[in-house]
Known about the structure:
The chain is flat, with a radius of gyration of 15 Å. The chain has one domain (2-103). The protein is 81% helix and 0% strand. It has four helices and no strands.
Amino acid sequence: MAWFALIVAGLFEVAWATAMKQSDGFTRPWPSVVTAVTAVASFALLAWAMRSLPLGTAYAVWTGIGTLGAFVLGIALLGEPAGGMRILAALMIVGGLVLMKLSSPA
């Protein structure tokens, strides 16, 4: 169950990062509210998952999901560049996340 909570926490991280971008420096009210709500949900689920997962693993997976999700949404929705080096870096993050999961005792 901790892994499920951690994955959902990572998805909430993607949501708050995307909403923060859309808030235009917190000048737009609704994206700002979405940022705050999803950030709190993300942190709460991360904290819960950390009760049984190792700190380094939980934090790395959480930030990895957030990084990859923001990367994909930035390309798909915001027209950000998808150069070869950026894609290679994203694949390396995925590899690191897989290794973290495989090496975790929980």
